[in-house]
Amino acid sequence: MLLARVIGSVWAIQKEKGMENMKLLIVQPINEFKQSTGNVLAAMDQIGAGIGEFVIVTQGTPAQRITAEKNAPIDAAIVGIIDSFEIEETVKRVSGTNQ
User: d(Cα 54, Cα 11) in Å, to the nearest integer?
Assistant: First the structure.
């Protein structure tokens, strides 16, 4: 799963079977400091996320299983709207050595 911020919407009148009446949003993956990272994605949204909100995104087969259509062409889906999150102040990076 990814943490992301919703940055836009996609409008498509014609869609493949399994995507009818489906809201699509553009999301920007973020890191633990809420900084943009990686490429933007178009993600299915059935929970009502809006532009500017931080969300949890799943990809691949788990995203596809959210719809009733068995083989819907879904690669990313928003599965949660983040109210807040916190990261431990001193994140210790563990390497292969005992440091």
Answer: 21
In the chain, the amino acid numbered 49 is A
Task: Give the predicted TM-score (pTM) of the model.
Answer: 0.82
Indicate the fold that domain 2-81 takes in CATH. Answer: OB fold (Dihydrolipoamide Acetyltransferase, E2P) (2.40.50)
* Tens-place pLDDT, residues 68-99: 777 778 889 999 999 988 877 655 454 444 44
Backbone angles phi, psi at 54, to 5 degrees: -90, 135
Amino acid at 55: V
Domain locations in the chain as residue ranges: 2-81
**DSSP 8-class letter at 39:** -
For residue 61, give the 3-state DSSP assignment.
helix
Q: Residue type at 89?
A: E
Q: pLDDT tens digits, residue range 8-64?
A: 999 988 888 777 778 999 999 999 889 999 999 999 999 999 999 999 999 988 888
